[in-house]
């Protein structure tokens, strides 16, 4: 056995990881204890591997684990280190410090003569090319958002408008039995039509400006709605700041389309989801922005009442900005796990109380 | 069975099970992976293997099953697989058919009054029925399934390890020995749900870069075939690792591609490919089609060699 109380270390690490949002339950702690009793962690390195195998489930969590593990064990090792090795460590430390000192002194710091600030024209920024730089939009870091891709895919599944309009190949047992009983003999089974999801979702997405940090995140939302959901028709249009009389077909805001044309394809069952920070990111409260938003909402409410607004900024940031005012006009929800599923409830016609 | 195996099972068995793999599986596992397997066997939690394709995720299960003499049941997951299919399937239509054609059909066939004739156990179901030892169940490519699949599976892979065949009204089937479950994923489609991950022992299978020589040796040893000459193997390893390291390939070739490629070098032509030729870095490698599976990769490689 090791000189350390391995179970206490495991317990410490467990608490540590839990406080850092790793999803671990009591079952995992008990499993670790069982593994330690079973001889799967007789020394510190052994224990590290065992706990890592049991508790870590992605490359991202691994970094967290290593940090916590080093924190805990380095404390223990320094506490229990025998005296004889102290001088060594001390001399090593001194050596390291010397090196450090030398390093920091060897290149003499040049004092730049202070030049008085000069007035210059601001550099002109070239307009953004209408294509995505590969490096900024195609890297997949899906794990650090408040809403994972999986959650989105899952949430979209409850967005439905089912109609018995598919293939006629579902056996209707009750009707078959009923007909057989009436006829006195069995002739043929009764089939009914398959249910299909005829939902129509219209996504209106704010781009650029204050929405820049969320582009990657919202791309996931659009991707999952289009390719990992069973929604029959997903239309996506983009706008900048406020949806005005026209919106854009592409995320780079180059192909405008009149909002009346968009609304022509909608009926009272169309579900409209707007994704925008409504000025909450910068804390704006501009009257014209609010007014044009109201005008726009008035326009789309003539077609459908199934409208929700997702705001990627956390709710505490809405206060004092135009977001708070817009939130009084329609259900506005923060873009996290609960927010998305509530927004979908709204789109399904369940109104929030 | 392999008496020198490093996988530990708390059960002494003298002979392999009838459903155990018949042929030894050449597999070189590093210490940490062996520990992960032993931990999975000890705690009877699923072992989740993640990693790029062709690095031996699937092979591990048959190596374990062969070494320990345990039956192996493999379950390949498709996009429409349901969790219940792993336990059993019930063919109601066949039974209805048999009822309808009872008089016409010849005697001695299935008796439709016996419902158990129409249920067939799946990989997990079979593993619950093995009486004297645990079975190894391989759930391959779990990420292909629908989003609900892993959650449904959790209900079965936990206490009390029991399921019921509703259609036949048999007594619930309880596992006599909890199965050893190996799950593989390459995260192609989606992430797995957190509750499922929490129960799993997670191991990331990396490309066994330093063990290629060992793998080649054991591979030919087990197949009882003459191994390629040592200088050919060395040259092949050097070229192969250079391709993996240098190129920014979209789909880097894995261990299985390497073995195929080596085999082609060794035996495809009447004479083995010359090791000296292969060792020249300025020459294009032969049998490129075995290593590059995407046009882009192929072209990128050709371009880098040409310049």
Task: Summarize the largest interface: chains and residue counts.
Answer: A-B, 26 and 22 residues
Structural class of chain B: alpha/beta
Number of helices of chain B: 11
Q: What string gives the helices and strands of chain B in order?
A: HEHEEHEHEHEEEHEHHHHH
Structural class of chain A, by secondary structure, is: alpha/beta
String of helices and strands of chain A: HHHHHHHEEHEEEHEEEHEHEHEH
Largest sheet of chain B: 5 strands, parallel
Counted beta strands of chain B: 9
* Low confidence ranges of chain A: 83-87, 101-110, 128-143
Mean pLDDT of chain B: 85
Distance between the termini of chain B: 52 Å
Q: Total number of helical segments of chain A?
A: 13
Number of E-state strands of chain A: 11
Strand content of the residues of chain B, in percent? Answer: 5-15%
Topology:
The complex is a heterodimer of chains A (353) and B (307).
Chain A: H1 6-19, H2 26-37, H3 44-55, H4 59-80, H5 86-105, H6 134-137, H7 149-157, E1 162-164, E2 170-171, H8 173-183, E3 191-192, E4 195-197, E5 200-206, H9 215-227, E6 233-239, E7 246-248, E8 256-258, H10 259-264, E9 271-275, H11 287-301, E10 307-311, H12 322-326, E11 332-334, H13 337-347
Parallel strand pairs in A: 5-6, 5-9, 9-10, 10-11
Antiparallel strand pairs in A: 1-4, 2-3, 7-8
Helix pairs in contact in A: 1-2, 1-4, 2-3, 7-9, 7-13
Chain B: H1 31-43, E1 47-50, H2 57-68, E2 72-76, E3 88-90, H3 92-100, E4 119-121, H4 123-129, E5 136-140, H5 149-156, E6 162-163, E7 173-174, E8 180-185, H6 194-199, E9 201-204, H7 212-223, H8 230-246, H9 255-267, H10 275-279, H11 295-306
Parallel strand pairs in B: 1-8, 1-9, 2-5, 5-8
Antiparallel strand pairs in B: 3-4, 6-7
């Amino acid at each position: 056995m090791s000189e350390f109380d391995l179970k206490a270390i495991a317990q410490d690490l467990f608490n540590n990881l839990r406080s850092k949002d790793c999803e671990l339950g009591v079952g995992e702690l008990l499993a670790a204890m069982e593994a330690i009793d079973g001889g799967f962690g007789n020394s510190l390195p052994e224990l590290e591997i065992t706990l890592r195998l049991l508790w870590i489930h992605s490359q991202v969590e691994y970094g967290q684990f290593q940090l916590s593990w080093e924190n805990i064990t380095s404390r223990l090792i320094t506490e229990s280190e025998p005296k004889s090795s102290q001088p060594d460590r001390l001399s090593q430390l001194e050596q390291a410090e010397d090196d450090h000192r030398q390093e920091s002194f060897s290149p003499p710091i040049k004092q730049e003569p202070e030049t008085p600030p000069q007035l210059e024209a601001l550099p002109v920024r070239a307009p953004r090319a209408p294509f995505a730089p590969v490096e900024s939009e195609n890297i997949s870091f899906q794990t650090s958002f408040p809403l994972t891709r999986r959650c989105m895919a899952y949430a979209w599944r409850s967005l439905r408008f089912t109609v018995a309009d598919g293939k006629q190949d579902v056996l209707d047992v009750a009707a078959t039995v009923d007909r057989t009983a009436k006829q006195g003999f069995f002739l043929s089974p009764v089939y009914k039509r398959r249910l299909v999801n005829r939902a129509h979702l219209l996504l209106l997405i704010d781009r650029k400006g204050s929405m820049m940090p969320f582009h990657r995140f919202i791309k996931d939302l659009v991707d999952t709605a289009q390719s990992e959901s069973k929604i029959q028709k997903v239309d996506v249009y983009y706008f900048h700041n406020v949806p005005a009389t026209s919106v854009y077909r592409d995320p780079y805001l180059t192909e405008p389309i009149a909002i009346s044309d968009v609304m022509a394809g909608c009926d009272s069952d169309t579900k409209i989801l707007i994704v925008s920070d409504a000025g909450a990111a910068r804390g704006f409260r501009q009257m014209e922005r609010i007014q044009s938003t109201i005008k726009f909402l008035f326009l789309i409410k003539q077609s459908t009442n199934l409208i929700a607004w997702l705001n990627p900024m956390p709710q505490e940031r809405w206060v004092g900005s135009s977001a708070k005012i817009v939130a009084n006009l329609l259900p506005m929800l923060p873009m996290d796990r609960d927010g998305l599923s509530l927004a979908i409830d709204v789109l399904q016609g369940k109104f929030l109380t | 069975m392999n008496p020198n195996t490093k996988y530990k099972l708390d059960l002494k068995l003298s002979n392999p099970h009838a459903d155990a793999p018949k042929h030894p599986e050449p597999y070189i596992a590093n210490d940490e992976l062996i520990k992960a397997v032993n931990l999975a066997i000890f705690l009877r939690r699923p072992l989740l293997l993640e990693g790029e394709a062709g690095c031996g995720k699937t092979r591990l299960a048959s190596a374990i099953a062969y070494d320990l003499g345990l039956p192996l049941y493999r379950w390949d997951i498709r996009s429409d697989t349901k969790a219940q299919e792993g336990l059993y399937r019930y063919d109601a239509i066949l039974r209805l058919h048999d009822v309808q054609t009872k008089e016409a059909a010849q005697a001695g066939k299935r008796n439709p009054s016996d419902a158990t004739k129409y249920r067939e156990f799946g990989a997990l179901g079979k593993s619950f029925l093995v009486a004297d030892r645990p079975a190894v169940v391989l759930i391959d490519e779990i990420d292909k399934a629908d989003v609900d699949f892993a959650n449904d599976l959790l209900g079965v892979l936990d206490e009390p390890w029991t399921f019921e065949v509703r259609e036949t009204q048999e007594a619930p089937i309880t596992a006599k020995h909890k199965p050893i479950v190996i799950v593989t994923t390459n995260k192609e489609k989606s992430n797995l749900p957190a509750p499922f991950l929490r129960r799993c022992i997670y191991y990331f299978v990396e490309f066994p870069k330093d063990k290629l020589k060992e793998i080649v040796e054991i591979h030919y040893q087990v197949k009882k075939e003459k191994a390629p000459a040592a200088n050919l193997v060395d040259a092949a390893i050097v070229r192969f690792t250079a391709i993996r390291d240098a190129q920014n390939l979209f789909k880097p070739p894995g261990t299985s591609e390497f073995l195929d490629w080596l085999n082609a070098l060794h035996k495809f032509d009447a004479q083995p490919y010359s090791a000296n030729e292969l060792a020249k870095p300025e020459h294009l490698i032969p049998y490129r089609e075995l290593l590059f599976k995407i046009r882009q990769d192929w072209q990128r490689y050709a371009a880098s060699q040409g310049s």
